[in-house]
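Reviewers of the previous submission asked for a worked example of the structure-prediction workflow described in the proposal, so we include one complete record here. The input consisted solely of the amino acid sequence. No template or homolog information was supplied to the procedure at any stage.
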Amino acid sequence: MPGIEARLNDTVVRSQHIASPDDQSRDWELVLRESHHRMKNTLTLLGASVRRDFTRAGTRNVSAAVDRFERRIVAFGRLYQLLSNDDDSSTVSVAAFFESLCEALSEAVLEPARIRCEAAIENGTLQASHCHRLALMLTELVTNAAKHAFPNKRGALIRIDVANRDGSWLCTVADNGIGATGPLQGTGSRILEGLARSIHARMHGETGEGGTRVTTAMPEVAD
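From that input alone, the workflow returned the following structure tokens.
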């Protein structure tokens, strides 16, 4: 699967890859390795927000800054727990899983960066491993948007939608940022490519002056 391109005011990717068992094994090894790298980057964002808060707080407001930092660490722990669970044997509630994920992402990553999050999640059930891999993809897209889409944070918004349409689960991450100007490359692209192959998913993205929108479409039965 090619990387996600980002051409101004244009459709940026339509792709599908049917993975062999060997492909899936290699993809998942890559995903595990690179997702740990991504979590380190998330911690970097968290650390930057802490430094900013303590610098602004001054000595009189240190207690409030510590409280905010504690809440973010707890949220990051919830986020890591959700992304680390890959039990192939169980099914989970899509609404419960992704609502918890969006709440943790908002508290750990977006709120510290002064980015508002909106989410609309439809109910249903999915195999836990498929929820987990979609969650890794969503987290990568949200983190990438938080880092690059908003040089001017005023009115920054990331919208997350998860819905079932015509036998596929559609997971969309959209921002109202500056729009991408080139292909998504590097670690983020490799994570997304490996995850998409592992669950037979297709990705479609578009970007422009109104921001960037990427949708992942995964068959309801992705075995």
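The longest helix spans residues 21-57. We consider this example representative of the routine output the project will generate in years two and three.
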